[in-house]
Amino acid sequence: NYLLNMSFQVFLLIVPFITTPYVARVLGPSNLGIQAYTYSIVQVLIVIGMFGISLYGNRQIATVSNRNKEQISAEFWSIYSIQICSVLFTIFSYLLFLINAIGDMKIVFLVQGIFLIANLFDISWFLLGMQEIKQTVLRNFLVKIISIVLIFTLV
After folding, report:
1. pLDDT digits (tens, 9 = 90+) for 4-57
2. Residue 102, SS3?
């Protein structure tokens, strides 16, 4: 588990060295600045929406993982409902922000909003709490590799 997690973290450090020069050259300085600006706003809202849920959920699931499935299910749904409410709140805030966005940037903001919506479905805290680290890391590897392929084909 440690080696898998460490290899994924190293992979995450290496990926920007591959993708950033390509994206910077293709988009140019102006469009790269727009992308970075919109992405930073979305990332702040993601941090607000997921504020501590990952750590709390991981710990809570780990404490009840030795018990029966009903307790695990009840704990999962209570934490996941909090996650859904907080992420929906940030999505609503984002939509209010989007109304006032500058014309050309609205499209970029809409595309970046996919990251917010993805947080509705992120239950990696549950898998880590259930000590299914291998499955979580392999899934994250796959998603990151797909995103790299999409960067090179769509950008």
Report:
1. 888 888 998 999 899 888 988 998 888 888 888 889 999 999 999 888 898 999
2. coil
Distance CA 92, CA 85 (A): 10
Do 123 and 80 contact (CB within 8 A), yes or no? yes
In the chain, what are the helix, strand and coil shares in percent, each to the nearest 5? 90, 0, 10
C-alpha closest to that of 76 among 121, 126, 118 = 126
Tell me the C-alpha distance between 90 and 115, whole Å.
12
Whole-model pTM over 0.85: no
How far apart CA 98 and CA 150 sit, in angstroms, is 25
- Provide the CA 143 distance to its chain's centre, in angstroms: 11
